[in-house]
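Hi support team,

I'm opening this ticket because the web form for multi-chain structure prediction keeps timing out on my end. I have pasted the exact lines I submitted so you can reproduce it. The total is 610 residues across two entries, so I didn't expect it to be a heavy job. Is there a limit I'm missing, or should I split the entries? Thanks in advance, R.K.
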Amino acid sequence: MTIEPMNLVGKSIAGAMAECAEQVERMMDLLLPKVEGNAEAPLVEAMRYSSLGGGKRLRPFIVLQSAQLFGVDPRCAIRVGAAVEFMHCYSLIHDDLPAMDNSDLRRGKPSCHKQFDEATAILAGDALQALAFQILASPETHADAIARSELVMALARAAGMEGMTGGQMIDLLAETRELNIGAITRLQRMKTGDMFTFCATSGAIMGRGTERQFHALNSYAQGLGLAFQIADDLLDFDGKEQDTGKPTGQDVKSGKATFVSTLGPERARFQARLLSEQAGQALDFWGEPAALLRAVACFVVNRDR
Amino acid sequence: MTIEPMNLVGKSIAGAMAECAEQVERMMDLLLPKVEGNAEAPLVEAMRYSSLGGGKRLRPFIVLQSAQLFGVDPRCAIRVGAAVEFMHCYSLIHDDLPAMDNSDLRRGKPSCHKQFDEATAILAGDALQALAFQILASPETHADAIARSELVMALARAAGMEGMTGGQMIDLLAETRELNIGAITRLQRMKTGDMFTFCATSGAIMGRGTERQFHALNSYAQGLGLAFQIADDLLDFDGKEQDTGKPTGQDVKSGKATFVSTLGPERARFQARLLSEQAGQALDFWGEPAALLRAVACFVVNRDR
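Hello R.K., no limit was hit. The queue was backed up. Here is the completed structure from your submission:
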């Protein structure tokens, strides 16, 4: 009996991702413990509601895989992974708000403002962002304060006006404006790509990587991020709500310019595969230790949620 | 002719605050430059609209005064002051949102979501928060990475769920719930006091203060923060919109529990004066170098905006 190598990778990555998700979930639970009796308890409840118990934890997985390339203590990497995931969850809460994407469903549950209310959702997002930076700057995350400061700076850049938040702004404007493929690429690089770049390079920050290593991880993340986004657009285009855990068909409904609306679904699918392969190749010189990062690049284009 | 010492202090603090405001404004303009041509330009415009050209810059002033007690390079302190002010401005944008305090006016101008729209205002606040941490973690802010990390941790704690954001959550709940004076004090300590504590102790973080010095600055900030908040409640109670630059009479209208509604205006005024004096006394052992910090404590209870 022969086993296809692709399947093996497919299996090992599913197992590795599940294990990582469990560890990160435990760390997030520890870093954001339940509060009882205090007047601000509803805020913490909303923060926990929207960040615990769900999600692929893809970003923390990339952090952990990047960290092991540099022999970084996994306990440090898990804290960085938790910080990134808190940041990601804050962005989901705010993106779902009525004034933004107005989405009632997230990870198969009511979105934060539906479960609580808008004010609580805005504040929960705000506090999750602050928490992410608090974790990164803590001596428990890394013994070297230079590494901690660099993590904070890199995440702030990836999440702020030049990255995720700027990208979300352009994304909202894209509903009323024609964007060409170059503009869509820039928007998606900012909105999702820069956070992937943070994750992929975080190991090099923690483990003092060389310029060449940073460069390789950057190339990897750029391909991965765009491939991920095209797959996301395709899931919105022809995915099922019961798989994705959020409403689908939203881009067509809002007339938003996406990779799929611009390239058409077939060329978009082809492009996602190509980017995913290129991402994997950027890590070739690492050999076997980068196998799971390469597998992630396959995973993001083949997922159904 | 005799000049009352109080007046002298009153004059010198007005001049010193105006000078500080100018320097901080210039630094903020430098750290958040205008963007033209890029698709995310409206986001940056909204961030600049809500953070430049207005405000007392009281928090940066406290940072600068705290820093000079420890002989910290004023160029470092101004960057920290700018970061704090960006953080403060983000909180004002989000507090004004329709789902929160629903306020149309801020610093005498339309609030951010009125001038732009709700989505832009939410994102502008989000990006200003990220910017604040990016500035603190930058090597240009402080040569010592340990100090930078400590600044990030302290600001994150002051701004997050245990501080400002948690306080704002309780404040919103206070409209529908009875709060006693202890609960109001805790709420205000979180909502405004913790940020003042960050400002007052930031000099000790940058200049490696002793435990006794931290303790004194903490006591100062606790008194100052509460005095400031009571004065704020009094301005809402009997101030004029043309002075405050924002709608007044909101607390009575919403039935919110405040120091004024609980103590009555006279006892509240007395309490503010007492706290302001106690704040000043906490810095007595510093003598003359802390004169302007003591003057700030007088200023916050005597201001009309």
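A quick check on our side: Chain B touches chain A through 53 residues (CB under 8 Å). Let us know if the file doesn't open in your viewer.
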